[in-house]
Amino acid sequence: MPSTEDLALQGDDILLFEDESVTARALSQTSVPWRVLVVDDEEDVFMATAFSLRDSEIDGRGLELLQATSARQALELIAHEPNIAVVLLDVVMETPDAGLRLVERIRAMPGREPLRIILRTGQPGYAPELDVIKRYDINDYKTKSELTQGRLMACLTVAVRGYHQLVRLQAHQRGLEKVVSASGTLVTQRHSLQSFAEGVLTQICDISECQPQGVVVLRKRERQPGETQGQVVAAAGVYRDLVGESLNQLPEPVQQCFAQQLGGAVGDIGGFKTVHIRSSGGDELVVLLTAQAPLNDVTRHMLEVFAINISLGLDNVQVFQELEHLAHHDVETGLRNRLGFRRGLSAKGAWFAQVQIDELEDIRGTLGEQVTNQLIAEVGRRLEQGLGEGGRVARINGDRIALAVPGSGGDALRQRVLDLLSQPVAVAGVEVRLPIAIGWSEGAASVTQAVDEAGLVVSRLPTGRQLRCGDWTPALADEVRQRVRLLSDLQDALAEDRIEMFLQPQLRLLDERVMGAEALVRWRRRDGTLVLPAEFIPMAEQTGAIRSLGERVAEKAVLALASWADPVHRISVNVSIRQLEETGFADWLHTLCQRHGVANRRLRLEITESAFAQDHSQVQDTLAALVSHGFELSIDDFGTGHSSLGRLVELRFQELKIDRSLVCAIETDARARKLAAMIVELGRDLGVEVLAEGLETPGQLLQLRDMGCVLGQGWLYGHAMPQADYEFRHGLA
Fold first, then answer.
1. To bridge 221 with a disulfide, which of 282, 462, 616, 719 should be the other Cys (CB 3.0-4.6 Å)?
2. CA 79 to CA 81: how far, in whole Å?
3. At 384, which CATH number?
4. Is the four-CA dihedral 468, 470, 476, 481 of positive or negative sign?
5. Are 633 and 653 contacting, i.e. CB atoms less than 8 angstroms apart?
6. How many CB atoms lie within 10 A of CB 649?
């Protein structure tokens, strides 16, 4: 039975099989002829070959023959002519193996892998071995006598089709490499949607090998009220000025294209090539390119793969944009946050302000968190509208809003801010007139410095319900620098243990017996001078250094108690609200006393009336924990704060301290005397001790004894003194 090849060669006819992987229809996309190089040192052979192939076509394309009479000439032609499909090569030329050596050189040339080689020889004895044919990818071997016209066309047809299929595969591979490279770059891109869309447009033009001329339109699945159905996010060529325009503002041909139903990932609509990229959330990018040459199957397939792969990039960009928005905006109000306020903003030539909305906690407790956030957002939006494009507004803290005002219109814009903030704010169906404080700063070196300076101005403004305003001044700057130096020196004093405990005696008024002492902190400089508490305690409370100070005084008090022989002598130490806000403070203090063998009740803890009344869960939990550990509590400065009588009932305490302001006025002011008497009576009714501090005169002592006050301390009985002096005076050393 004859083989398929024999059947194909019978009668010198060429048979094209419809079931071949590459058909004539698929290959005949251009009229450019196939180029065939005939390499033979005999001129007659070339002439005979040209005569045999005259007017021949393979898959609808003619043949163009090139001639080389030596291996060297053939190599030069192949090096400079990239589109040679087939080489008809004589084995024996200058030397018996010149043809085989040329094959070796051809196969070593980059970019010539698809070229097909057919060996011809007039001497059958020079046929190459089978392993040589395999090694050098020789596609066929024939003697010249075998290659009749029909057989020659059959060999060339197979070789040309093999060449073209390899070329297509290479193009496919290059396209895939482009897709992988483009997709990898864009999928991991962390920039704006516009830069992502510009990258998509560039890569599509590169893959399709066309000039960049078109638009990229973003169409959202869900749109806000009034939002357009599409917007140009990137453009090139004649359309480059359309970026930012809505779909209904685009040229009529582009609008008509979007009016039609978009099919698959790649299509042709209304004179445009379209690439359709969908995100997982339903948003889509539609790329429209002005139609040039038709897309071939390979390019179309590449663009389809690209569109599918790049959809992940669109998801990433949208997620990144959302995260970036969250990073620069306050979630509760939608206003910029501190980071968004500083972004791209210069301090040069601008006014900055901080606006503090007072009494927000009361509003929050009355109307709720959501309404309070709406109120802040409304104030912010009102300021944004009033300041216009030149201004900037941000929520930088719970009750603080920052402003940036261009210096050119500073005075007028500052007045506009005051006018805007003086108006009531409508929220939850009611109008609220807010107590507001404003601090201004100009000429700072940075935005951060300007905002901080404005905030310091706000913190120094007096309280009140009226609109209050102040400016950053050189004097205030000097004060801040001094406070910074003081804080730095305080940290050094803590590290070098130059914080000392002074003690002021507390006596029973009836027999003037010393019951204990209050521990008062003193800071000794390196030169031996003392810094009094009034100079550094407020700064320590504002910065948080009060925690370290409080711990140091508590440690010194416990060590003193542990060294005294008197088992009932006590020390009172002040506890700040900052310490009460720490979750482990009660356990730490309990462990400290147990470590040194001191009964907890001997360390009386003085807590200000305002701290005692704090409606703060952690403060309340800490106070309850201190009581459960057996510590005795003293409410300091009673009568000057706003404690709740309910709190006096809820939490067990052992002492009320009448504030020194009442004690000082007790001889001359009937109201002060009456209030002090009420406190003494309240203590008696509650079964707790009452201690009057600031006791300085015998007249004050007489009044307090008549009221029934039990304890007192003050200069009448002694100033605060170093621990060693106190121990010596009271026999504790």
1. 282
2. 6
3. 3.30.70.270
4. positive
5. yes
6. 9
Structure tokens at 171: 């193009």
* Amino acid at site 8: A
Give 325's contacts (C-beta < 8 A, 6+ positions apart): none
Residue ranges of E strands in 326-383:
350-357
Boundary-marking domain end, from 108, 139, 172: 172
User: What is the dihedral angle through the alpha carbons of 372, 375, 381, 386, rounded to the nearest 10 degrees?
Assistant: -140
The tokens of 732 are what?
Answer: 């504790």
Residues 443 and 540 in one domain: no
Do 65 and 205 fall into the same domain? no
Specify the number of domains making up the chain. Answer: 4
Do 438 and 500 lie in one domain? The reply is no
Nearest-CA neighbor of 387 among 344, 358, 421?
Answer: 421
Both 380 and 513 in one domain: the answer is: no
Q: 3-class SS at 658?
A: strand
Domain ranges, residue 54: 4-172
pTM over 0.70: no
Of 204-213, 324-333, 415-424, which has the strongest mean pLDDT? 415-424
Looking at the chain, the number of H-run helices and the number of E-run strands are: 27, 28
In a domain, 181, yes or no: no
Write the DSSP assignment of 566-595 as a string of letters: -SS-EEEEE--HHHHTSTTHHHHHHHHHHH
CA gap 297, 267 in Å, rounded: 12
- Biggest CA-to-CA distance, the chain: 145
**DSSP for residue 233:** E
pLDDT in tens, 707-731: 999 999 999 998 999 999 999 998 8
Residue 192 binned pLDDT confidence (cut-offs 50, 70, 90): low
The CA-to-CA distance between both ends of the chain, in Å, stands at: 127
- Give per-residue pLDDT as tens, 340-390: 888 888 888 888 989 888 877 777 777 788 888 888 888 888 888 888 777
| Cβ atoms 179, 172 nearer than 8 A | no
Q: How many CB atoms lie within 10 A of CB 347?
A: 19
Tell me the one-letter amino acid at 525: R
Fill in the DSSP letter of residue 208. H
